[in-house]
Amino acid sequence: MSETAAPLVEVTGLTKRYGDTLAVDGVDLTVLPGEVYGFLGPNGAGKTTALRILTGLIAPTSGTVRVLGGAPGQAQVLARTGSMIESPAFYPYLSGLDNLRLLAEYAEVPRARIHEVLALVDLTDRARDRFSTYSLGMKQRLGVAAALLKDPELVILDEPTNGLDPAGMRDMRRLIRELGADGRTVLLSSHLLGEVQQICDRVGIISQGKMVAEHNVEELRGQQELVIRAVPRESARSVLTEALGADTVHLYDDTLRVKVAPDRAAEVNRVLVEAGIAVSELRSTERALEDVFFELTTTHPEEKADVG
Hints:
Blueprint: E1 9-18, E2 21-31, E3 36-40, H1 47-54, E4 62-67, H2 75-78, E5 81-84, H3 96-107, H4 112-120, H5 136-148, E6 154-158, H6 166-181, E7 185-190, H7 193-199, E8 202-207, E9 210-216, H8 217-221, E10 224-231, H9 233-244, E11 249-252, E12 255-258, H10 265-274, E13 278-286, H11 289-297
Parallel strand pairs: 3-7, 3-8, 5-6, 6-7
Antiparallel strand pairs: 1-2, 1-4, 8-9, 10-12, 10-13, 11-12
């Protein structure tokens, strides 16, 4: 991935309105060549709407969108883009192979490419079976195969692991990592924090139609934290908030998370002990992407959302 190269996807002030509903609200987004970019947010956050705009399926209400140097939906842009938006749709009574043959003929892709993409998604052995007999994971993989038919520079995948069992999710993550390692640029949406953390170079977090953060994964996780278990917990929180600032101290499950450098652990412990608070655990840790996500997308960080 080259951070000095021109972005393959460049979005500024993207807005999409359906009547009184603002589905996408002023989103800025950049995807760089050769990276796996995770577009992360809860269901209903506006991810699919944004991806539909990027692939030319719908028009934005306002904002500027450039994909591979052109406008979404232009023939020269589509020729270099592969996508799977929402659930893949194929003819149910045709085989996976015949479905891809139809797509290849429409896209003027050599038939030899069909067998290459079937091998990439590990569907060669079931290629002649009807699509209607495929498991959900196989249907998703055939959708990815279709997205790869044109040997695209940019691959856009909308919730590629949606509905898969753990084995299917593992296989899909492996495939996406391989696509990234092969030099392709991948933009995928997901509501699964662990998935994004495992396979993405950078991540944009969207909530209620607005982009609330865009960084590489390590930057987003940010500085180390102190994890503290103390009794009484609310008193510990009040003491530390007064000493360190309200934005520094958060409740998470049954612990306190304090955003200070690990070398301040002794100082933090002393403040609590002098206030008569019993400290049973104090350790340093890096924030998980999950922690960052909840801080950015909930009104009260201590209120965990269900995004699994």
